[in-house]
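Sequence in, structure out.
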Amino acid sequence: MYNEKVMQAFQNPKNVGEIENPSGVGLVGNESCGDIMQITLKIENDIIVDAKFKTFGCAAAIATSTTATEMIKGMTVDEALKVTNKKVLEVLGGLPSQKIHCSVLAEEAIQKAIEDYKSKQK
C-alpha cells in the first residue's frame, strides 16, 4: 500500500514532539478519518529554525508530518507558506488516493502555525 519512502518516514520519524515556547502553533484535524496534527515552530528573523509535530493518525499522517517539518526547516516564513500538499507528496513519492488528505493536513498545519506566528508579531 505504501512505498518505501513513506514507510521509512513512518518508521523513523524526525521532529516528533513539541517546541517549548513556540513562535507559532498549528493544530488541524480531519473529522472523517480522525487524524489530528499539530505543528509547532521556532522562528527567528522570519526563518524557521525548528519545527516539531505531534500527530494522532495513520502511517500516512505521520509520514507527511515528518516530511513537512523536515522540508520547512531553514525556510523563510514566506517560503514555507508556499509548501503545498503536492510538494509533500512529491518528496514522499506519492500516497494512495484515499490517504492524500494527510498531506493536506500537513499543508494546513504549517499555514496555521505561520498565521499564529504572524498574529503574535502585530
